[in-house]
Specification:
Elements (H helix, E strand, L loop, with lengths): L3 H11 L27 H8 L1 E6 L2 E2 L3 E6 L2 E5 L1 H13 L2 E6 L2 H9 L5 E2 L7 H4 L2 E3 L8 E6 L16 E5 L3 H9 L4 E5 L2 H9 L5 E5 H10 L3 E3 L15 E3 L3 H16 L2 H18 L1
Parallel strand pairs: 1-5, 1-6, 9-10, 9-11
Antiparallel strand pairs: 2-3, 3-4, 7-13, 8-11, 8-12
Helix pairs in contact: 1-7, 3-9, 3-10, 8-10
């Protein structure tokens, strides 16, 4: 990732590569998965296979993103560190399956992955279809604009009739629809694509999670965070999604999560990976 448009284009190109690391393999693994209609013995099958397959969309720094580690394209991030720790606690290997965000929950529902971890908000609507872990991070939502236009967009009303971008299938997409109803929503599959469109003035603003927004602004001198303030709801908090009925698996994941929340480990992961994303951008 480099400063400016070239770096963003590079990131977009990098997204098409499959991640490979000690904890990352292709989606062709023989790890067993269960559909959401039959998850009562999911933990037993995961334990037997020794692998938990995790659906994610690695374009959401600092939570999940691609970087080069020892010459290899690797998925890293706060969610990845968190899941690696949970896998260690559960005694299973963690396998990441990278895809567009709007496909993550669909893959979980279809039984192609065991759980979904990708900055996913546990909304009431999603709870009708999936079980969720305890909330592990509550983000603030920010509006990112071209720096040249920052003085124009100081309120939500100033974004009326403007093109506002959000990641397709994300909570930010719902926030634009709910809190900016007079704007023209532009939904794209990847966050880096939103930033490219913003830098090219193809959209006027983008609604992004705070740590992600701050990371992109730090990497790009021509972007800025607008003063327009969005509301944060309890349903915006991030949680791990599981098939309905994953009671035993949820208990084990929650036990590991609650320890990391209590001792501040989750916040440390977010800060560590924010620094990593910014460091990569400056190289």
């Amino acid at each position: 990732m480099k400063k400016g448009l070239i770096g963003l284009v590079s990131v977009v190109a990098l997204m098409v590569l499959g991640a490979c690391s000690s904890s990352t393999t292709s989606s062709s693994s023989s790890s067993s998965t269960k559909s959401s209609s039959d998850a009562s013995n999911q933990w037993s099958e995961i334990k037997k296979a020794g692998v938990i397959k995790v659906g994610t969309s690695a374009d959401f720094a600092p939570f999940e993103f691609h970087t080069m580690v020892n010459g290899k394209d690797t998925i890293v991030g706060a969610d990845i560190d968190m899941m690696d720790a949970i896998g260690k606690e559960l005694g299973v290997k963690v396998e990441y399956v990278d895809m567009d965000f709007n496909a993550v929950l669909a893959s979980l529902e279809q039984g192609q992955v065991d759980i979904a971890v990708s900055g996913i908000s546990a909304t009431d609507e999603r709870k009708k279809t999936f079980d969720f872990s305890v909330n592990y991070f509550t983000p603030e939502q920010l509006v990112v604009v071209n720096k040249a236009n920052v003085s124009k967009y100081t309120t939500l009303d100033s974004l009326a009739n403007k093109r506002v971008g959000a990641q397709k299938g994300s909570i930010q997409e719902s926030i634009v629809k709910d809190q900016l109803p007079d704007s023209q929503i532009v939904s794209l599959a990847k966050v880096p694509n939103l930033m490219v469109e913003l830098k090219q003035n193809s959209i006027d603003a983008a609604v992004v999670e705070s740590a992600v927004a701050q990371s992109y602004v730090a990497q790009n001198d021509d972007l800025a965070i607008a003063d327009a303030k969005l509301e944060t709801a309890e349903g915006d908090a991030y949680a791990i999604a599981m098939p309905k009925g994953s009671t035993e698996l949820a208990d084990k994941i929650n036990s590991a999560l609650e320890k990391m929340i209590a001792d501040g480990t989750i916040k440390e992961y977010v800060q560590k990976n924010t620094d990593l994303a910014n460091e990569n951008a400056s190289n």
